[in-house]
Design a protein that fits this description.
Blueprint lengths: L1 H10 L19 E13 L8 E15 L2 E12 L1 E3 L2 E18 L4 E18 L2 E20 L8 E14 L2 E13 L1
Antiparallel strand pairs: 1-2, 1-9, 2-3, 3-5, 4-5, 5-6, 6-7, 7-8, 8-9
């Protein structure tokens, strides 16, 4: 399944025949940033009773040199922990550096895949005692959609992004995220 999602994320960057009329960034603003909220699910997957649900503020900066590819750095800062059976799990931070192959649907909407290096840092505690921290790194991947609400060529385009990502999957532990964010291109 993991290989399938990675391949699908890469194939998302193959230009669709109907989208070939979009320019490759000539009048499109190339640099951008995003700011949003991420809901993270940490655990073995399957039964939701075994997973921790955490919250984070997400920010990213990116550059789209051509219409079908962007390069992005994303950062996460934990803002919501969860306690289960006396153990509290907290996201300290996370980041992902990734390539985003994009398929423009029209001038305002694009779907994209994401493949890159991801790292997350978690801290666990119980009854006020630090149980330690865990730094996890893996190949991260995901899918998303971007919607720009201003016409192309405007000095500053704004819009929204919605994406789902897998930051980590090893040794029976998964870190998945769903993010909704504001985007501004300049």
């Amino acid at each position: 399944m993991r290989r399938f999602l990675i391949v699908m994320a890469l194939l998302a960057g193959v230009p669709a025949a109907g989208a070939a009329d979009r320019d490759s960034g000539g009048d499109r603003n190339q640099a951008y940033y995003t700011l949003g909220l991420t809901s993270l699910v940490v655990g073995p997957g399957g039964c939701s009773c075994d997973n921790f649900n955490l919250g984070a503020i997400a920010g990213a900066v990116g550059w789209q040199p051509i219409g079908y590819l962007a390069i992005e750095g994303t950062g996460l800062i934990g803002v919501l922990d969860q306690t289960k059976d006396g153990v509290t799990l907290r996201l300290d931070s996370g980041f992902m550096v990734s390539a985003l192959p994009m398929v423009p649907i029209n001038r305002s909407v694009a779907i994209y895949g994401r493949v890159g290096y991801a790292e997350t840092l978690f801290r666990a505690s119980a009854n006020g005692f630090n149980l330690g921290s865990s730094s996890n790194h893996d190949i991260g991947y995901g899918l998303g959609v971007q919607w720009l609400t201003t016409p192309a060529g405007v000095r500053s385009e704004v819009g929204a992004c919605l994406e789902v990502d897998r930051y980590y999957e090893k040794q029976g532990v998964k870190v998945d995220g769903a993010t909704i964010s504001f985007i501004q291109r300049f």
